[in-house]
Specification:
The chain has 33 helices and 14 strands. It has 696 residues and is of the alpha/beta class. The chain starts with 16 loop residues before the first helix and ends in an 18-residue tail after the last helix. The N terminus and C terminus are likely disordered.
């Protein structure tokens, strides 16, 4: 009876279809069901075994569902049937089955979801005549047990002593030991639910008669990539529908991804900042790989986005997935650690990586990746725990790097707290700081959420005034404003959003805004005049101004270092030139302009070997600065000289300074191309080595 064709074979029959028929007939025998040909091929003469099945089962039940529940089913259990078809596609043919049944044969079936592990084991025992030694890891409560890997390794070692054929079930999160890889066993990837697999599964169930007349069923199904996100139970639940049309519609709904619900697309984002450019390039490369235009090893596989909280790092990562048309898997150390003790935390970590491997191609987003810590941390508290976490995380990163189709995007606030091994190329290929969003980025976020409620010109004005707020601030303000609109029974408007963001135009101090614009414009003009590197962005925020410059490498001569001091004091000099007096805006914390200028001047005298004392180095330059009046005088001279020089340069380009500041007040944020256009008439004012530093 083995090998009889199942009813309603589909067009373009896959090569493994005949083997699938064989497995399904074996499963029917195992469950005591009549062979499929007895139910469908009425003209065939029944065999003695057919007649026996008929006596046991009784009259052939009608295809319509009966109200009685005590009648025997003519169909196999759905999950077993689907798993059997997937195993047929995995082995490919009965020849491979026989090869795996030879004495001494070792066959590995990899890429198995934990939920499918027991199903596969059951089918191997009930639908295959070979009595394999089946090796599988321990599972507890739907996940790998705490010591699953170590016990799995011991079972593999023990299997070497035996001659019977071995089937090794390798679910996601379990690795093979080196000695087993060395013998190069037959390795089979457990088949995904492809269109061929799904159609074969449908052809053997209660929808088989509808499939014969369904026409272009294959074209109506979700894409094979989308179906990777579905578990076995999802597919079986969807196909319980009474009609084929309803089953296909259920599958399409389950795999549908709404961009409005899952975040924006890169195409919705404007601008040319480094992070956005890198994200677009990775997505473009990924699409080329999917189209067969690029090899996987030619792509960057990982991206680390770091910066202040709420700057839209995770938002950008989700946009990458939407633009590529692939799933986004998220995880993070906070989520993993919430599972419990170390073993639970590592189990959840492995499960996240396993999910990404299962549904590849996908984007794997790891939030708060800096929580991985560092083995170089001086804090010895819980160092053993930290080392185990880092070691396990590195192993997962290395394992997923070997799988095609998974792009890893890490997000964090403190990149300096991460272990160097995590940051190295190969684990994190690209590392980019994500700044606070500028007006264009905020406009894209506002448009994504509010385009149906507020006119675009109003959103653009709102975006300009909201510069300095993070993407998280905007998201929270939109939710709060919508809530207010509902409770007040009013239409959502700009004033509601301004109230939530505390940016009402009546509250703005225009003199302060102009001073901030002049200050930041001064830095930009000095940077262009001294050729210190392109200015990427300038912003006016509620807390002040921000400027982003890409520093260029130099020879570290005294004049190069003095130019940096001039740049630091460019904002202060611009205030003096344009407004007649300076403010405290250049001073304040250790990151302020004056702090940076002073730190650099102290280093000239105490650590660089370029000061009055010549080629000497001091271990504690700050103490030397405070304790030595002569050093203090020299530092002050450096700063005063630099501010005077900044003023002279700005006076030469005062018209440009005024135009740049005015544009900044109007737009609140400027990008590289806009800044370069405004600074194009600024001529370079390069330095020459100071005579006092010339060699004797």
């Amino acid at each position: 009876m083995e090998g009889f064709p199942m009813p309603h074979l589909i067009e373009n029959t896959p090569t493994w279809a005949a083997f699938a028929d064989t497995l399904i007939e074996r499963l029917r025998r195992h469950h005591g069901l009549a062979p499929s040909r007895f139910l469908d091929d009425e003209d065939d003469e029944p065999s003695e075994l057919d007649i026996l099945f008929q006596k046991l089962e009784g009259p052939v039940p009608a295809k319509q569902f009966s109200e009685r529940t005590d009648l025997p089913s003519r169909y196999l259990p759905a999950r077993q049937l689907l798993t059997g078809v997937r195993l047929a596609a995995t082995f490919g043919s009965q020849d491979q089955e026989q090869e795996s049944a030879q004495c001494g044969a070792i066959t590995v079936i990899r890429d198995i979801a934990i939920e499918d592990l027991q199903l596969i084991k059951d089918i191997l025992k009930s639908a295959f005549p070979t009595r394999w030694l089946i090796i599988e890891p321990d599972v507890a409560e739907g996940a790998l047990a705490k010591n699953a890997q170590s016990r799995f390794d011991r079972l593999l070692v023990d299997s070497v002593d035996k001659i019977e054929p071995v089937i090794i079930l390798q679910p996601d999160g379990i690795t093979l030991p080196a000695h087993l890889k060395a013998v190069a066993p037959t390795t089979l990837a457990f088949s995904n639910v492809t269109h061929d697999v799904l159609l074969k599964f449908l052809a053997c169930g209660h929808l088989s008669d509808q499939l014969a007349n369904a026409g272009n069923t294959r074209a109506a199904l979700p894409t094979e990539t989308a179906m990777k996100a579905l578990w076995t139970v999802d597919i079986c639940a969807a196909t319980r529908a009474p009609t084929l049309h309803q089953a296909v519609e259920r599958l399409r709904r389950m795999t549908h991804r709404d961009a409005k619900e899952n975040g924006p697309r890169l195409e919705d984002m404007t601008g040319d900042n480094v992070a956005l450019t890198a994200a677009r390039r990775i997505v473009a490369d990924l699409l080329d790989w999917q189209a067969g235009k690029a090899a996987w090893h030619e792509l960057s596989h990982s991206l680390l986005l770091f910066g202040a909280p709420g700057t839209g790092k995770t938002w950008l990562a989700r946009a990458m997935g939407n633009s590529a048309g692939i799933a986004v898997v998220t995880g993070g150390f906070g989520e993993w650690q919430a599972a419990g003790h170390l073993g639970d935390m590592l189990r959840e970590m492995r499960a996240t990586f396993a999910e990404a491997r299962r549904i590849a191609p996908c984007i794997l987003v790891i939030d708060e990746i800096d929580a991985v810590g560092s083995r170089t941390d001086d804090d010895r508290h819980a160092s053993h725990y930290r080392i185990q976490v880092i070691t396990a995380f590195l192993a997962q990163m290395d394992q997923i790097a070997q799988q095609e189709g998974v792009i890893v995007v890490g997000t964090c606030n403190h990149v300096d707290r991460m272990d160097p091994a995590v940051l190295r190329s190969g684990r994190m290929d690209i590392k980019i700081e994500v700044p606070v969003p500028d007006a264009e980025a905020l406009h894209a976020i506002l448009s994504h959420h509010l385009a149906d409620n507020i006119a675009d010109p109003e959103l653009q004005k709102l975006a300009n005034r909201a510069v300095g707020h993070s993407a998280a601030d905007i998201d929270a303000a939109i939710r709060a404003a919508r809530s207010n609109a509902r409770h007040e029974r009013k239409l959502l408007n700009v004033e509601m959003l301004e109230e939530q963001l505390n940016i009402g135009t009546d509250d703005e101090n225009h003199d302060r805004t102009w001073r901030i614009a002049v200050h930041e414009a001064g830095h930009a003009v000095i940077g262009k005049a001294l050729d210190l590197g392109p200015i990427d962005r300038i912003l006016i925020t509620g807390d002040g101004g921000q400027i982003y410059r890409r520093a260029q490498s130099n020879e570290s001569r005294l004049c190069d270092i003095e130019d940096e001091i001039v740049y630091s004091l460019g904002g202060r000099a611009a205030e003096r030139l344009m407004l007649g007096e300076v403010s405290a805006g250049a001073g304040g914390p250790a990151t302020s302009d004056l702090a940076i200028a002073t730190r650099t001047a102290v280093d000239i005298e105490a650590t660089y070997g370029l000061g009055h004392e010549g080629p000497v180095w001091h271990a504690n330059p700050d103490a030397l600065h405070l304790a030595t009046p002569a050093i203090r005088d020299r530092v002050r001279q450096h700063i005063v000289k630099a501010e005077k020089r900044a003023g002279e340069i700005l006076q030469q380009h005062q018209q440009v300074l005024d135009a740049l500041a005015s544009e900044l007040v109007e737009k609140r944020s400027l990008r590289t191309s806009e800044i370069a256009q405004l600074l194009q008439t600024v001529t370079e004012n390069t330095s020459t080595p100071s005579p006092e530093n010339a060699p004797p």
